[in-house]
Design goal:
It comes from Panagrellus redivivus (Microworm). By secondary structure, this protein is an alpha+beta fold. It is built from 22 helices and twelve strands. The chain has one domain: Cytochrome p450, CATH 1.10.630.10.
Length: 511
């Protein structure tokens, strides 16, 4: 009797699940939107959307060539829309931000986002607005001006290591030097690290491991295949993470210890705020363990400028990750493009010689380095870095163009296609020509979303530009970056949310 009940129950469960799968995977067909076919209805395009070695941004570009600027995919059984139409991208990121204020979410993230540690880059709604408002002064012009000497000092230290490598007289992978440099800067300005610790900072290896692990666990894959079972799956995900992702918890615990030590020091009355407060100091001035968030209202000017201790830890963790990887990757790809285009590198050098006439680079000089500015923009156009960070989740049912979008739908932006759209960038869209950014049209401005756009544009964009410009000034003032037979014929990128070059092999020649 009980065996029969179990068999019937099992068959019923399988039948219900198969019905759910078939309903989910015909989602786009029922809406008249083309979708990428698959031979496996349980995973569909999940292997592509979670691949580390073959970033999804390049696969989206291939699919767009076949299916057009608007089509659907399925991460497991989760339907997601892909767009590269510039008008729709602008509409989503700007005009209808109140309906798309969340970043693309996964079933796991939809549970994690309510965690006390959750940070600016994954939270949504009123909590996002509160954390964004509190964090904004950190990146004000006045504070960035005060940060420049620290960036300058870390850049000088980076040059000492680069000089030693140059003395070997051989081509080398320059990318790790940028990793050390950007981690050095962010640790000093975020958590109060004293002095430079390049090539002695354990955070470099640990954070690199964190990025590699994002989206890689079997339970994250399972949650895409059976999203309705996310709450039974989530505890297993947490246990698995505790057992296998020691780097993540090591970084978190290190930041938590720094925050707790600072709180105790302040409470003792023996702490004097530094001339340049780090991120912890900024946040501690707004600490409140009982803060709550109401409903999200885009134009509501009243925001409670308070933050909990755990949110301080989460914010510093997020800035550590974001400030380390993306900036280092951009410096790496920029070095590759300058090596491949020596004539434009000469123009950048000439401008540096004209503008930077003091040993140390000043904040005022950075604003005059127009050729470096357009170089970085062109590099990001051709080799976008944070392609996963600009995609969105629909928070309220609405339309994009004339397409109805249901609440909860993820919308990918095919950034590679958008960045090579000849109608926007010209017939030479696939070529490296930084000069195009000296004469930017409205269409180019709206399509240039490599840092995001609208209210959720990258909060640390100006800091990233400062770090990149100062590093390039110091390198190019002394060396010519040269491509050799060992230099990669084309950029090989990997990563999930953020893409990074596998290596950047160049040779440095003294000027």
């Amino acid at each position: 009797m009980w065996l029969a009940v179990l068999i019937v129950g099992f068959i019923t469960g399988i039948t219900v699940y198969l019905y759910h799968v078939l309903q989910a995977t015909t989602y786009w067909k029922r809406r008249g939107i083309p979708s990428v076919p698959s031979s496996n209805i349980f995973t569909n395009q999940l292997d592509e959307t979670t691949s580390y070695d073959h970033p999804i941004c390049f696969q989206l570009h291939k699919w767009t060539k076949e299916f057009g600027p608007i089509y659907g995919i399925f991460s497991g059984t989760v339907p997601e829309l892909v767009i590269s139409d510039p008008a729709m991208v602008h509409e989503m990121l700007n005009k209808k931000f109140e309906c798309f204020h969340g970043r693309r979410s996964t079933p796991i993230l939809r549970v994690i986002e309510n965690n006390k540690l959750s940070h600016l880059f994954i939270v949504k709604g009123a909590r996002w607005k509160r954390l964004r408002t509190i964090s904004a002064p950190i990146f004000s012009t006045g504070n960035l001006r005060r940060i420049v000497p620290i960036v300058e000092d870390s850049s000088t230290k980076m040059m000492e290591f680069i000089n030693l490598e140059h003395e070997k007289g051989k081509p080398f992978n320059i990318h790790p030097f940028f990793y050390e440099y950007t981690m050095d800067v962010i640790c000093r300005i975020a958590t109060g690290q004293k002095g430079s610790k390049q090539f002695e900072n354990p955070n470099v290896a640990m954070v690199t491991e964190v990025f590699k692990n994002i989206g890689s666990t079997p339970f994250e894959r399972l949650s895409f295949m059976v999203p309705s079972m996310i709450y039974p799956i989530f505890p297993m995900f947490m246990v698995y993470s505790l057992l296998t992702q020691s780097a993540f918890y090591a970084v978190i615990n290190g930041i938590r210890q720094a925050v707790e030590d600072r709180i105790k020091l302040k409470e003792s009355g023996n702490y004097k705020t530094q001339d340049l407060p780090d991120f912890i100091d900024f946040f501690l001035d707004s600490i409140d363990e009982n803060v709550t968030d109401g409903a999200f209202i885009k134009n509501n000017a009243k925001v409670v400028k308070r933050v909990t201790t755990e949110e301080i830890v989460g914010q510093c963790f997020a800035f550590l990750l974001a400030g380390f990887d993306t900036t280092a990757n951009t410096l790496g790809t920029t070095s590759w493009y300058l090596a491949k285009h020596p004539n434009f590198q000469d123009r950048v050098y000439d401008e540096i010689q004209e503008v930077c006439n003091t040993p140390e680079v000043t904040y005022e000089q950075l604003g005059q380095l127009k050729h470096i500015d357009v170089t970085m923009k062109e590099v990001l156009r051709l080799a976008p870095i944070a392609t996963g960070a600009i995609s969105r989740e629909c928070m309220e049912s609405t339309t994009l163009g004339n397409i109805p979008i249901e609440k909860g739908t993820n919308v990918w932006i095919d950034l590679v296609t958008l960045n090579q759209n000849k109608e926007i960038w010209g017939d030479d869209a696939s070529e490296f020509r930084p000069e195009r950014f000296f004469d930017v049209t409205t269409e180019m401005q709206n399509a240039n979303v490599n840092f995001g756009a609208g209210p959720r544009i990258c909060i640390g964009m100006k800091l990233a530009y400062i770090e990149e410009k100062i590093a390039l000034v110091h390198i190019l003032r002394k060396y010519r970056i040269v491509a050799t037979d060992e230099t990669e014929a084309k950029l090989e990128m990997c990563g999930r949310v953020v893409q990074h070059p596998k290596s950047i092999t160049v040779k440095l020649e003294l000027r």
